[in-house]
Each structure stands twice: as C-alpha cells, then as structure tokens.
Amino acid sequence: QVQLVESGGGLVQPGGSLRLSCAASIRPFSIYTMAWYRQAPGEQRELVAEITGGGNTNYVDSVRGRFTISRDNAKNTVYLQMNSLKAEDTAVYYCSTRDLRFVGSRYWGQGTQVTVSS
C-alpha cells in the first residue's frame, strides 16, 4: 500500500514562508516524478510544482520564483519551500505521484492546509 504523508502546513501572514514535506513509501523513490498540487475552496485542483527523479523541475506560473520544490532520495521525501506567500496561495496542498501500473492513475496524500492571512 503506497502512502504519501504531507506535513508542514499552517497559518502564515502574507509575505511569510512555509515548508511542506511529503514522506513517500514508494520504492524505488528515485524513479518517481513527485508533484505538489493544491485545491482552493470552490476551485479545481491544480498542479503547483513537480520534480523528476533526476531533479528537473516545473512550476505553475503563479508560484515561479517564490516556491521551490526539492527532493531527498535518501529520505524518500519531497519538499515544497514556499516564500513570499500571498492570500491566493491559501489551499489544501497535496503530494502526488503516478501509479506506474495504470495509465492516468495517481497516488495522493491526505493533504495539508495552508492558510495565508493577516
């Protein structure tokens, strides 16, 4: 049973920072592209950032330059460093990766709430 466990969410003021972590039980972790998604109330879930096993990264335009995705393959963990947070970053953030057994299938964590408010 694959598990993705997120942590690090919380309440932060605009302009502040948070670091999300996702511990993954998948093996071998290093071959999986890992991603962070987010979903705000009343909105569709959107891809925020992703990182390949080799460390190549991709970001949605709205977070590029403010967020950094990284991974530690020795710890089976992916991170999302979020700086200069804005109110519009408020959402539930999910860690995700593809289920390589089935086309179009993904694994999801339980999500962690990030609230940016003064």
Q: How would you explain this protein's 3D organization?
A:
- With 118 residues, this protein is an all-beta fold.
- Helix content is 0%, strand content 48%.
- It contains no helices and 11 strands.
- The chain has strands at 4-7, 10-12, 18-24, 34-39, 46-51, 57-59, 67-72, 77-82, 91-98, 106-108, 112-116.
- Strands 2, 4, 5, 6, 9, 10 and 11 form a 7-stranded mixed sheet that branches. It has a 4-stranded antiparallel sheet with strand order 1-3-8-7, with no helix packed on it.
- The radius of gyration is 14 Å and the shape is globular.
- 30% of the residues are buried.
Keyphrases for this structure?
seven-stranded mixed β-sheet, globular, about 120 residues
Architecture blueprint of SSEs:
Blueprint (H helix, E strand, L loop, with lengths): L3 E4 L2 E3 L5 E7 L9 E6 L6 E6 L5 E3 L7 E6 L4 E6 L8 E8 L7 E3 L3 E5 L2
Parallel strand pairs: 2-11
Antiparallel strand pairs: 1-3, 3-8, 4-5, 4-9, 5-6, 7-8, 9-10, 9-11
Report the C-alpha radius of gyration, rounded: 14 Å
* Beta-strand percentage range: over 45%
| Shape designation | globular
Structure class: mainly beta
Q: What share of the residues lie within helices?
A: under 10%
Q: Report the sheet with the most strands, covering strand number, pairing sense and barrel closure.
A: 7 strands, mixed
What is the mean predicted local confidence, pLDDT? 96
Q: Termini, distance in Å? A: 40 Å
Record field, number of beta strands: 11
Order of helix and strand elements from N to C terminus: EEEEEEEEEEE
Poorly predicted regions: none
How many helices in DSSP terms? Answer: 0
